[in-house]
Amino acid sequence: MSDVGGARFHRQCPGIGGFFTRLPLIKALDNYSQHHAVEERRFVPPTLTEIRQIFNIAQVFELPGRVKLMTFDADDTLYEHGMDLEADDWIVQALITLMEAGLYVAVVTAAGYPGKPERYEARFKGMLARMQERGCPAEVTDKFYCVGGECNYLFRLKQDYKLEAVEDKLWHTDQIASWRNEDIASMLDVAEAALREACTRMRLDVQYLRKAKAVGCFPVKAEHRIEYEVLEDIALTVQDKLLNLETGPPRVPFCAFNGNRDVWVDLGSKKFGIEALQRYLGVDERHTCHMGDRFTSTGNDLRSRDVAMTVWVTDPRETEKYLEVFLRALGGACQKCADARPTGPKQGTEEWLKAQTIQRNTAGI
């Protein structure tokens, strides 16, 4: 990892940590400014969102010729929260193109469905159907993996375009294998109690779900939304409770996070999941990049920074934008895929019709 300890940037941002690569920030700023004219503004300084995007572009510029494994969060990164990958999504074409170019692609998600690969297949159905339609050979299907429950389950894609579970002993690190069931249960007991206390205090109408290696809460009715600030407080309440036990922190690591519509507490974190996958595939941290949408203190992508380059997105559209930049830099068939990315909403969709209405009303037509 690059040491930025003596740099002025590190002194100004002491919590920034280290980087696995050099970041061409001037080049990234020029690229961003071509579309947003940020350097031409006279009265409005760059925002935190713009700085995040400039850093993202700089990191993406460093991926060609270096990255061998691309890992992705699922909800709000590859698709909208709770939705699935559809065959006509451009991002499906992009992911397959990366695999055809020889890169490993893995979804690293909090969703935990132990022993149920069909549940993950349903989330990725569009991509799997498109791979089958294209007749992707084994050297391509062998490039796709899914890590579930942050770090607790691994599934690989077979030649029949179905997922199968990988035995724990084949991919778990010694650290993961050392986590004892009684310690896991104890941590989840404390987490569940803290969740219930926080939700009762907030007067929320929620339901709870306890799994073997996770516990969470979410609205009773699907159409109900819990305010983001409330979810933040619940996640921080659980974190505080687990870290400040009278007997000391839990003997197993955990991730208590705000999932945007819910709050979950998982055993381990994506750091352990990506690290174990790297070991299984023979890829190190300097050749891995993770894209996710939750890099705050209550996000479950944060710890991926310890073991991979990272790109912080806010929604699937941003993921597409950075993948387009990456694919364009790779050239060849990847360039063609980048050129095929739609520049706006699909004609005839609700979003497209809304844009037409706004344009007509604005222009006074």
Based on Cα principal axes, name the global outline: globular
- Unreliable segments of 5+ consecutive residues: 1-5
Count of separate DSSP helical elements? 15
> Widest sheet: strand order?
5-4-3-2-1-10-11
Beta percentage is 5-15%
Question: Main β-sheet, in a few words?
Answer: 7 strands, mixed
Computed structural class:
alpha/beta
Number of strands: 11
User: Helix amount, in percent?
Assistant: 40-55%
Distance between the termini: 57 Å
Which H/E pattern describes the elements?
A: HHHEHEHHHEEEHHHEEHEEHEEHHH
| Global mean pLDDT | 93
- Rounded to the nearest angstrom, the radius of gyration is 21 Å
Describe the model.
This protein is of the alpha/beta class and 365 residues long. Helices cover 43% and strands 14% of the residues. Helix 2 packs across helix 3 (48-61) and helix 4 (90-100) runs parallel beside helix 13 (316-330).
Short note summarizing the structure:
The protein is of the alpha/beta class.
Short key terms for the protein model shown above:
365 residues; alpha/beta; 4-stranded antiparallel sheet; 11 strands; 14% strand; disordered N terminus
Outline the fold blueprint:
Blueprint: H1 8-12, H2 25-36, H3 48-61, E1 69-72, H4 90-100, E2 104-108, H5 117-123, H6 125-134, H7 138-141, E3 144-148, E4 153-157, E5 163-165, H8 168-171, H9 174-177, H10 181-201, E6 206-210, E7 214-219, H11 228-243, E8 254-258, E9 263-267, H12 270-281, E10 288-292, E11 309-312, H13 316-330, H14 333-339, H15 350-363
Parallel strand pairs: 1-2, 1-10, 2-3, 10-11
Antiparallel strand pairs: 3-4, 4-5, 6-7, 7-9, 8-9
